[in-house]
Inverse folding.
């Protein structure tokens, strides 16, 4: 906004600008449009933001975000608690949940193995996962870490560790060409894997 | 987020979602990433948002947003106060200011003439503009309302009114084909106007 608007507005804009996916221009528009809000709505947003950290903690069972001891998913009796999907962060839960094909529960690692960043087995919620499987009747664990170097390494480590300790099914999300995409734009690594992992259709 | 995250987080997301340019997905990402902020930054944003309305008012001279009697532009002695650019809203100021070709001051109408919405001459800051020109040494007024039906009507009305009352230069921003665009995509109305308003080059 470069000095033409009031300082408090510019400050809001520059704070919003540090959020993901928000450029300077969008942040400016957002800040300006906050002025059109009712005072009561502004106060509501202000209060919510101010108390966000103190209200939100991690689910004692799975590590998802929660406002009480257990998150909304772990405390849902309609979910299949014998089926655990292992993810890196709470953000990944939403993507998987939205696809509508998974009705199990989650386990949030809190990251992925990354020796270069000094993130080893003990930095992640891996012991909690083992303990959780040990103490509960778990049928299958789906490894849903991201399909990049560190995510794959984390999945491989977990697959090894789980199969050594438990007689349960362990699976990995299918990797391949995304639906709706043009093969022309597939990268070589993905294409190669899609060939290697081809499924017989008849 | 559909019930998988804490309620306070979903509330923040749904409030952010009502801002312009922010879809559900971006709002979710923003809300989640607020959790990564330092507590002090959250409090700062919270306080800014909560006090936005009480801090910000309209500049007594031009109608721009301000935190004191005069906005940053009107109180800037390095600006050319004899040159007034008339805009509809404070938001348009930023676009004009950023182009770097205008060093005058602004006058914010607070809308445009729109009989259907019951917005007439008295609903806009038109009398203030006339008074401002009458009491100050103004050299030129640039009419910069948007080039749509109502913006054009507003500009036409102002041109008439100003030329009847004052012996000053009155101009309208140039309308035509935008720079960097492909003529192929120009609409007929714009193209027609670009022909009509063509400039001799030698």
């Amino acid at each position: 906004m470069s000095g033409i608007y009031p300082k408090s507005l510019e400050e809001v804009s520059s704070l919003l600008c540090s959020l993901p996916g928000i450029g300077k221009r969008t942040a400016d528009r957002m800040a300006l449009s906050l002025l059109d809000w009712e005072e009561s709505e502004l106060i509501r947003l202000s209060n919510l933001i101010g108390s966000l950290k103190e209200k939100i903690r991690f689910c004692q069972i799975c590590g998802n975000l929660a406002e009480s001891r257990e998150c909304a998913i772990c405390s849902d009796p309609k979910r299949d608690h014998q089926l655990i999907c292992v993810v890196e962060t709470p953000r990944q839960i939403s993507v998987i949940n939205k696809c509508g094909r998974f009705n199990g529960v989650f386990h949030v690692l809190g990251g992925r193995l990354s020796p270069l960043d000094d993130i080893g087995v003990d930095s992640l919620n891996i012991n909690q996962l083992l303990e959780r499987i040990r103490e509960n009747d778990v049928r299958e664990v789906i490894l849903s870490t991201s399909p990049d170097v560190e995510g794959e390494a984390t999945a491989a480590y977990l697959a090894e560790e789980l199969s050594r300790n438990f007689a349960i099914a362990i699976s990995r999300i299918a990797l391949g060409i995304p639906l709706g995409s043009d093969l022309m734009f597939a990268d070589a690594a993905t294409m190669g894997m899609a060939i290697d992992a081809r499924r017989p259709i008849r």
